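Re: that chain you flagged

S.,

Sorry for the slow reply, it's been a week of failed gels. I finally had a moment to sit down with the sequence you sent. For the record, here it is as I used it:
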Amino acid sequence: MIKAVTDLEVFNLSFCFAMDIFRMSRSFPKAETYSLTDQIVRSSRSISANIAEGFGRRIYESEFKKYLIYSMGSLEETKVWLLFAKECGYVETKIYDQYYLKYDDLGAKLYKLFENWKTF
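Prediction finished late last night. Pasting the structure tokens below so you have them in one place:
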């Protein structure tokens, strides 16, 4: 039974990925602090934050689903910032590929939750 947002696999995965992005972004150049670094950290955190906010409104199925859609949007945004980081030479292609696959998997799980969530 799901009693807390931390009972959702997608929340836990997205939180861990956001922490990974945070740690990785610490190696970005100082010149990127208020641009790429800030954007990728914020968008990656927004994935789990939106899941949590929607979960708090889960009494209304449409509200929870709306926030899952926001979360999917933040996930796609994070993938774009990750691509920028790779193209700027801040992230190796191998690392980029690993993150991209993780985020694709997370996106599929988010979509599955969206499709199957029912409020009783």
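What I noticed first: The mean pLDDT is 95.

Talk soon,
D.
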